[in-house]
Amino acid sequence: MTARLSWLAPWLAFALILIAAPRVFPSPTALTMMSLMGVMIIFALSYNMLLGQTGLLSFGHAVYYGLGGFVAIHTMNAVIHNKLGLSIPVIPLVGGLAGLVFGVLFGLISTRRAGLVFSMISLGIGELVSSSSFILRTFFGGEEGITTNRSKLAPFLGHKFGPQLEVYYLIGVWCFVCVVAMYALTRTPFGRMCNAVRENPERVEFVGYSPRMVRLIAFCFAAFFAGIAGGLAAISFEIMNAQQLGAQQSSLVLLMAYIGGVGSFAGPIVGAVIITYLQIMLSDVTSAWQLYFGLMFIAVVMFAPEGVVGWTMLHLRALRGGVAWRLAPAYAAVGPALVATGAGAIMIIELANRQLAEARSEGSAMRLFGFDVDASTLPPWIVAVALFAAGTILVLRLWPRVGDAWGAVNARLHFRGEG
Amino acid sequence: MSAALSLLDLRKSFGPVQIIRGVSLEIAEGERHAIIGPNGAGKSTLFNLVSGRIRPSSGEVRLHGQAITGLSPFEINRRGLSRSFQITNIFPKMSVEENLRCAALWSLGYKYAFWTSIERLSDVCERAEWLMDRVGLTVRRHVPAGVLSYAEQRALEIGVTIGGSADVVMLDEPTAGMNNSETEHAVALIRKVTEGKTLVMVEHDMGVVFSLADRISVLVYGQIIASDAPERIRENPAVREAYLGQDGA
Amino acid sequence: MLQLITFSTLNGVLYGMLLFMMASGLTLIFSMMGVLNFAHASFYMLGAYFGFEISRRIGFWPGFVLAPLLVGVIGALVERYGLRHLHRRGQVSELLFTFGLAFVIEELVQMIWGKLPVDYRVPPQLDFVAFRLFDTTYPAYRVFMLLIAIAMFAALLTVLTRTRVGLIIQAALTHPDMVAMLGHDVPKIFMLVFGAGAALAGLAGVIAGPALVTQPDMASLLGPILFVVIVVGGLGSLTGAFFASLLIGLVQTFAVAMNFSFAEVLGPVAPPFLGDLWKVTIAELAPVVPYLLLVLVLIFRPTGLMGRRES
Question: Running DSSP on this structure, what letter comes out for residue A134?
Fold first, then answer.
């Protein structure tokens, strides 16, 4: 009985977190951030239907998010203008359907090819749509974008969705439904064939499936869910502009999915939460935050391609196997070195940023890790470079130990028949 | 009796080089047919032409009397022809069970179904179960295909090939790279799983060929020089010259 | 009209040749190493900024020589310490790495040189009018750019067809697995090819910088067009990349020059739903043109103009 119901546990936990979050973090900033997180979870998961499930690396997924958002916001304005009876909770569906329509349209073109060509085409279509936003001004609203007022729509069960809290719960419900739906999709015959296409598209043809059709359907689903996310964003922020469907937004969703981990279903969810949080918090702390994003992404690509969740799962597996302790000495040795490298790198970036970008307007004095330093003098630089260099050398020296430790751990697990 | 598979003057050129130079062949329903020949004779190319992996330059392929020339592999597969690969070609990160389920899905009519969980499709699960049992991988069901042993991967390759219940099965060197006991095991497996089906196989191991095949075709430089019952192929002087001369034995 | 055609053709060819300077490197790198270098346009941007910085301190000509070399060295280092470790993980990892790299380079450039365009000037020796046609002048610097681009094209052609290195590269283009068997040090060849491709992009940046605008988003504006070029040309085909470069160069330049809208030609009354499209001038459509071309080519010829390879 317990085994039968145990699959429910993560879903209950997820629902509980969604419900309880605003009580734990009730501030308006937190509410806005959590609303954005909910939107981004849907968006990142929809992206992973392509990258993680079907093996399609897209550089233009924001097109469907953005177009979904624009159609949603125009629908809202039309509803307000014509006093139609449509209420807010169905608006995301409008966005989803818009995403779906454009997904079919562009999917027909781009899914003819797989692999790197698909990536290039997705980039091209992304640019096509975002550069036409400067031409079709009526629809995209030019520089300012299109605004709306969500509280003017017909109320739903007495709610007008004026306060952010109500919007948060609306997003929460949609987020939950979408996550469940996308998870369910991975369990269907279609979802299984997506994985097969990712692994070996040629063999798929010899078991009776058209890989192109699998890619197209996956593309349409991904566009549909991205459109829902866009529709929710339109409701939450009451504005849509061309940036929302541009290259930056497309890069952002790639970052979320990849840093979270494309190999597991939960990866993009965690990635969306982390990146959204960092995006808002880091941009308050440093003006070089995008540089950190880029470096973080490169680090994940090079050293932890399984992403945060994949990395955690590896460790959990070792922990459950009772062999995690074997990693401890190696981690203990390499940990401080890694911290030194990281701290050194952050110091260098911050000093450089201060000296090169901000000194003219704000002076070269700054606070760094609690110390008052002057970026135009040599000492902080010496400390930073020394930390970074020493840390890097040590990491390079010690890293083989981590590899060896993992070798031992995997051998143990394999021996016990788990590999 | 109608032919399960017929090739009519099939030709294929890569640039100026003609690899398949007019192959005509009829393979009867239920027959076990082996294609042998020296290296570079074009056996794999012939397989690729029939299964739709590459298009023939001219000629025709018929499956149960219907032309399938130039169709894409999945269309040919849906008409009931399935093939295996010389270099193991499976879904490496998916488990044995998932590999076999994927192989069975289309033939059971589920197409691109996205409204039902695969676990609930009892026919798919049963079919995968049956296949696993047949190829002897039941205890390895949850193991990713990529970490199976070589012989196990070859068995899975056969399982995936017959998974869609195709009635014409083409096996490309199913015992390549196996040791004696593995080969023996594989022959028994092939015999078992292709019962009542039409089998076309390319094979180098003459022991396997002579123990399995009802009829043998000898392909040399893109042409079939003989097509006959095993014992008569053994005695055919042209075959001896082309084949044994080439092997130097 | 004749004037417009002459100048647009000149500028279009120039732009196309510049595109090819980058697309050729991108294609060579892709064909040999299987790496689609997302950061290729970033090397172009680095070339422009290095050229600017050096010309500000020492002069244009030292920059003209040093900046591409510097970019080439950076490219080689990126290959040696980054891409090489990712090679066995496959194309997607490599693409993602260069994608991250492009992101980081843009941020670094912004940090070092600021978000606004920098004042990268045409050298005084070349700051004169080359010729005058009807009443429009053509600057000497553009002629110089054209000459450099043609010289690079000739050099590339010579290297590829006449030298030993070129033969190895050609062999690698058609039979990527065979090069190792010939006994060549493949990692070193990869590093050199990647460095040379980066240097070529850097050179394009140095000479384009003063004529166009040197600013931090020049890479992200050009990068996608570059990919359009190699996809339209057919991934992996140098000849295809050449014709696609010229095609896109010419089409886009001509589009920019055409300063009229549908409304002016066909009357002010727009068909329904076409309101905005009716009012924009062809020139305003120019940024969209390469992408429209991409879509059209893909609909009618999915493998590109001269493509054979399926990724």
Answer: T
Question: B169 in helix, strand or coil?
Answer: strand
- Percent of chain C past pLDDT 90, that is, above it, reads 40
Handedness of CA A47, A52, A54, A60 (dihedral sign): positive
Closest residue in A to C279 (Cα–Cα): A135
CA angle A298, A301, A307 (to 5 degrees): 120
Give dist(CA C86, CA C99) in Å, integer: 13
Q: Residue B46: helix, strand or coil by DSSP?
A: helix
Q: Which residue in the set B73, B160, B163 is minimally distant from A205, CB to CB?
A: B73
DSSP state of C122: P
Q: In whole angstroms, what is the distance from residue C222 CA to residue A88 CA?
A: 40
As a whole number of angstroms, the distance between CA B10 and CA B67 comes to 13
Of A190, A196, A207, the CB nearest to B114: A190
- Min distance A309 CA to chain C CA atoms (Å): 18
The answer to whether A233 contacts chain B (CB < 8 Å) is no
How close, in Å, is residue A388 to chain B by CA atoms?
Answer: 38
- Domain residue ranges in chain B: 3-247
- Catalogue all structural domains in chain A, each as residue range(s) with its CATH number: 14-294 (1.10.3470), 321-415 (no CATH)
Tracing tokens 């009892």 back to the chain, one arrives at B122
- B3-247 folds as Rossmann fold (3.40.50)
Please report, for chain C, the start and end positions of each structural domain, with discontinuous segments joined by +. 2-217
CB A212 within 8 A of CB A112: yes
Nearest to A98 by CA among A121, A56, A68, A53: A68
d(CA C110, CA C104): 10
Task: Mark yes or no for CB contact A258/C96 under 8 Å.
Answer: yes
CB contact under 8 Å between A134 and C89, yes or no, is no
Whether the CB of C116 is below 8 Å from some CB of chain A: the reply is no
Q: Say what the pLDDT of residue B249 is.
A: 39
Q: How confident is the model at residue A377 (pLDDT cuts 50, 70, 90)?
A: confident
Looking at the complex, does the CB of residue A195 fall below 8 Å from at least one CB of chain B? yes
Across chain B, how many H-helices and E-strands are there?
Answer: 10, 10
Confidence of residue C32 (pLDDT cuts 50, 70, 90): confident
Give the pairing type, strands B81-83 and A371-374. unpaired
> Which pair of tokens denotes residue C12?
């279009």
What is the pLDDT averaged over residues B218-225? 91
Q: Say whether the C–B interface has 3 or more Cβ pairs within 8 Å.
A: no
Quote the minimal CA–CA distance from C228 to chain A in Å. Answer: 7
Is A196 in CB contact (< 8 Å) with chain B?
yes
Please tell me which chains touch C, using 3 or more CB pairs under 8 Å as the contact test: A
User: Are the Cβ atoms of A113 and C310 closer than 8 angstroms?
Assistant: yes
d(CA A36, CA A280) in angstroms, rounded, equals 10
Q: Are C222 and C41 in contact (CB under 8 A)?
A: yes
CB A263 within 8 A of CB A310: yes
Per-residue pLDDT of A116-150, as tens digits, reads: 889 989 999 999 999 888 888 888 988 889 999 98
| Min distance A19 CA to chain C CA atoms (Å) | 36
The C-alpha atoms of residue B79 and residue A208 are separated, in whole angstroms, by 9
Mutate to test the interface with C, among A70, A113, A120, A205 (most CBs of C within 10 A): A120
A149 at interface of C, judged by CB pairs closer than 8 A: no
The whole-angstrom separation of Cα A122 and Cα C208 is 28
Residues from chain B contacting residue A185 (CB–CB below 8 Å) = 114
3-state DSSP assignment of residue B218? strand
Judged by a CB distance cut-off of 8 A, whether residue C230 touches chain A is yes
A206 at B interface, C-beta within 8 A: yes
Dist CA A246 CA A226 (whole Å): 14
pLDDT digits (tens, 9 = 90+) for C244-284: 999 999 998 888 887 777 666 666 666 655 667 667 777 77
Distance of CA B140 to the CA centre of its chain: 24
